[in-house]
Each structure stands twice: as C-alpha cells, then as structure tokens.
Amino acid sequence: MEGYNHREIEEKWQEKWALDGIYKVPDTEAGKNNFYQLVEFSYPSGNLHTGHWYAFAVPDIFARYKRMQGLNVLYPMGFDAFGLPAENAAIKNGGDPAEWTERQMEAMRTQLRSMGASFDWSREVVTCAPEYYKWTQWMFNQFLKNDLVYRDITMVNWCPKDQTILANEQVVDGKCERCGTEVVQSEQQQWMLRITKYADRLVDDLDKLDWPEEIKSAQRNWIGRSEGSEITFKLSTDDTVSVFTTRADTLFGVTYIVFAPEHPLLEILPIENRDEVNAYVVATKKKQELERQQSKEKTGVQLKGITAINPANGEEVPVWIADYVLSGYGTGAVMGVPQHDERDREFAEKMGLAIVDRPLVDKKEITEKVGGKLVKTYRLRDWGISRQRYWGCPIPIVYDPEGKAHAVPDEHLPWLLPTDVDHTPDGTAPLARSKELLERTEKIFGAGWRPEVETMDTFVDSSWYFYRYLDNKNEATFASPEKMDTWMPVDLYMGGAEHTTMHLLYSRFWTKALHDLGLVKDSEAYKVRRNRGLILGPDGNKMSKSKGNVINPDEYVERLGADTVRMYLAFMGPYGVTVNYPWDPNGVVGVRRFLERVWKLKAKIDVEKKVCKTDPLVHKTIKGVGEDIDEFKFNTAIAKMMILLNALEKEEKIVLGSYKALLKLLSPFAPHIAEELWHELDETESIHLASWPTYNTDFLIEETVTLAVQVNGKVRGEITIAPDIAKEDIEAAALALPRVIAIVAGGQPKKIIVVPKKVVNIVF
Q1: What is the pTM of this model?
Q2: SS3 sequence, 384-440?
C-alpha cells in the first residue's frame, strides 16, 4: 500500500466529484426531506484566508453529515461582488472594477474547490451580475410603491475629500478607509428604507426564533426599544423642550437638562456663549454615533443664560449640550438624574452639577400630572442606502425636468451600470460623469430628464441572496413560489458575529417587507442561526499583516493537505459559539499524523473476522460522534474518533465493518482521504452518498466511570469513559473539553496526572 499522498488524492477526487455532479441538488428527491444550510457568501477578495476556511469548510462537515443522514441538502455558494475594494483597485491601477472582480472570483472559485466543500456550484449567484441586480432594483421599486422607500436629509458619515457617504465599516479610527481623510458627520440627502416601521416586529419576533440569546440580545439592544414618558420643560426664554425618559418616577431628582448637539432649538436660543457652543457642535460632527455612545469620556458645554423649569416641583435647573445625547434617540433632549443614572452621574461629577436624593413617584401618575404622555422610542434609524460610488447596484430612479423622482419602469430593468465612467474621486458621484447613462435616460424618457447617480449600499445586495440560490436562472421572477415553498425558510444559517446587527438585521427587515407585499410566504428567513468566533494568530492576537501573524491556509494545504486543515479547524473547539481560537502549528501537524494512521489502518483488516473486543467502542463512537455533530461539537467528535483509532491500532486484526464505520464517521471531516480509502475497498459509489452508520444499543450497555478534569488543580469539567480505557485516551478526552481548550489556548501541558477512576489533572 502506497503512502498517503494528499496532493494526488485531493486533486483526483475534487475533479471526480465535479465531473459526476454528486453535490448538484434537485429541488425534490423521493423519500428525502429538504435541508437548506446557508453560510454567508464571500466578497471576492481573490485570497482565501483562514477565516474563509473556518466559515465554509467547517460548516461543510454538518452539511455532509446531514446528507448522509438521508436529507436532500442544499449548501450553495456565491459572491457578494459589489463594493468599495473593487472600485479602489480600479482607482489605483486604472482598471475596470468588473474585470477585477471577475478575476478575483475565478481565483476564489479555484481556492474554494480546493477545500473539498460540497457546494452546489450550479446555483451560484453573483450580485454584480445584471441578472441578479435586476431583481434588487425590482424589489426597490416594489418598496417605493408601498412607501417603504423615501428621499430625506439625514446625518451620515461624510468624507470631505472623496465627497461620498461612508458606511460605518468604511470608517477606520475616524478616517476614510479609502483616502485616510478625517470623516465628519454631515447632513446629506439620500434614499432611505423604512426599517423603523418594522422595529416592534423585529424585536418581538426574536422570541419565536431558535437563535442563541446573545444574538437576540444584540439585535434588541441595537434596535433599542424603550417605553417611557415624554415630558415638556419650559425654558427661561419661554420656549419649551420635550424630553424622553424611561424613568419618569425620578422626575423630582432632575438637576439639569441636556440637549444633543444637533438639537434644532440651539439655532434660535439666545445663548450667551454662542461661540463656545458652536465650536462644540462642530467638533461633535466629526464623531461617529457609535463613538459617542461608547465613549467613557464625558464632555459638554453649558448654555449660559438658559435654564429650564422642572414641571414637577418648579425648580430651575441649568441646560447643557453633550455628545452622549443623540439626536435620533427620543426627542434629542434628556433630563439629567445623576442619583439614578450612571451616565448622568458621570456627567454631573465631571461638570460639578448637583446630585440630589429625592423620593421616587408613580411613573404613570406623575406623567399625567405634569401633562406628559406615555410613548415608545427606538435607537434604530431608517436605513440610508445611497452611496456616491460607482461599483454598486444603480438606484433605478430618474428625474423629470421639474426634478420630481420617478421609478424606472420594470421593462427597463436591469437599469444597467454604465461602463464609460472615470472612477477618480473629484467631488462628484462617478455616475454623474457618465455620458452613456445620461443619453440612455434622455433617449427613453425625453430631453431634460436626468438619472439618479447614486448606487445602493451593498448590504441591500446581501439582504435577499438566499432566495436567488433557489432559482438562479429564472428570468421571470427573483424566485418561483414553488421553489421557495420547497426550501424556505433556511434550516441553518452560519455566519460571523460581526454581521449580527447589520446584515442579519437588514435581511430580516427585507424578508418581512417581501412577506407583507405577498412576495414570500415566511416573515422570517432563518430557522436557526449560529455565529462563529475568529481564528487568531499563533500569538493569540487577531491576524494582521502588520503583526506578522497571518496564517496562509494555502501553504498548509500544499504541505499537509486540505483534509488536515479542515479537521484541525474543526478540532480547535466547538463551532457556533463566539469563542476565538489561536492557531497552533503543532496542532495542525498532530491532525496530519492522525490521518496518516488512518491511512495505515487498512492493513489490519481481516475480512473473515466477524467480532472483536472493540465492537462496543465502535458503536459507542458512532452514537457519540453523531450527537456531537448535532451540537456543533466537532472537536469532541474528532476526539472520539481518535480514541477509536487508538483502540483499533492495538488489535492484531480488525473487522471490516468497524473500518467502514470509521471511514464513514471521518468522511464529513476529511472527505478526500475517506473517499480514497472507501474506493480501495472496491466500493463503486461515493462514500458521500452512503448512509450514516447506525449503532446497536446492545453494545452501549456497559459500566462507565466519570472523572473530574482539572487544570492546575482547578476543576474545569468532567469526562465519562469506559473503565478499561487507555491512559492516552483519557488524556486525549480531557484535552478535548471546550473549557480546557479555551484555557490552554494551544499551549502544551508540562504533564498530565491521571488518578484512575477519580481525576485528571493537567499541569501547565
């Protein structure tokens, strides 16, 4: 038997699987239930980094497992292909963003296939393709007809040099990601989506979802629904200001009023220190809202000559402006009650304001007594989607000679992105410089008509892509109702925690809007959502080129194989939890040795042998691995296979059935080597089309022992094992515990002490 040549094996089976189309998924298959497993599609960076492998190859384990369980599994892939990086490349190199993007996608297709993932490539979607963004534009038009889209002036991140609106993720340390210019907050006119109309449903419907509480909490906090009171304070100028509070019961303890720096009253009040106030307002405009919310440093300016009267007790209190108050939350003004609010106390202590302890009163009663009203308010803002960039979905709007906006009729969709565009920033939107776009507009609509020159936020493109996977060749609609009935909602959606309050929230809104318009049957798109953590550098820090800790998976695939990389990433710790794991070069090599041992095990098969003392462990392992995969505990599933391999290696001869069972258990994790060894047994059908092994409960009735697991003397968990298990297997099981993995962070123990039937102590 030749040695384990991963390069030859992996290339061979990747080509064979593609030729045979074994992962091409029919919409229905007799006797099988559908299972739609989704991962967040990739931006075509052209470089498959470790994060891509963790995002796509590890969830592939679950997809393969479900397929072997007899489900009709859809596991698609595509590209979120519009965006600023392509435009930046065109600006830098003088190229075409479309050509750059296509080159990047082709490179990534090759790399994605190298990981051996079971993607159905026949369903690929590419958001920059006209046949895709035609339907993005069509949906925009449906929303416009139903008052879910409007034009308004709103506060945005604005780059003064590039003259463009920036999304939050395009602002790095307060500066434009593209040019490094300091970003300011500016009022700009843009197209808005009424996501706030769905605020209550976006909160309330979370209770129906099988999602981790941390995801639900993050969305609830982002939406920021508060139920409270709106109370009016009279100012010394005879003007009035309304404040929102969730604690009307603390009204007697008010010692100051605070305006947001954007509050409109600031422009008309006779403020004595006008220059100082104006300077503070200008400084605040340079800050992002998120920075203002999270800053621990309290700043502000008193409005000299202005006071407010507490409607509950007639007391006169000073009025301030401070950037910790946001114009979009409540009324843009709050009452300061430092005795009962931490932020107010910090501000009061910093500014030397009074802190008084007054009795609490009935909230509803005091609200009614002072003439206030009970209201609900939200932190969530409507979604501004306008971008003054080229490489994005064109907003399908044209303006008549009087300046009135009109939707581009459906027969002219897709409203194509013009190609005669100079991408160099000059203070105008790139599409405004397109002769082709202007001539097309006037040819269709008449002289004097002009096109919208903004493109859409790329989060729009990713808000509905999961529907297009179901029917990506359909020219009559974005997806047929029949296909959506067959597959939706998504059974399992796995993605990054960084998308919890952006993409995930936006796509929930989009789905609800489509549902209300009768275009989809479900008001929620995803049954189950699981977030993953990050893979850190070997030094335990986030990977970055500047730190020199970036891991290139291609190098490990070339040297050790795709199966090794897949299995190592799965072995690092439980998936579907936001825990970050450091890359351990020694751990990768250890997984490679495990696969080499599996490769050699075939020599021990005795086709005449029917029973073996390892039979109970085989059945226990089948049960345990399946249960672990169901719970995304891929690491402990691998540990159980390692224990089984140790036991099988100790036998002089092994049963063929036990060997086949091990290969089937291994196949979702290491698909190439499992396929190769399977076919060496003269099997003609792919192992990935075989059934998941079953276990006999008769073999599971055995005595077990529970051992406490300690790290440096502190109990961190426990393991349940057979009483006659080998010492090295006990050690492997203890090291595979999630809490142990998190604590040791890839380090090597000095020693492991096993006290039989009592405790395992790992010493570092």
Answers
A1: 0.85
A2: ECEECCCCCCECCEEECCCCCEEECCHHHCCCCCCCCCCCCCCCCCHHHHCHHHHHH
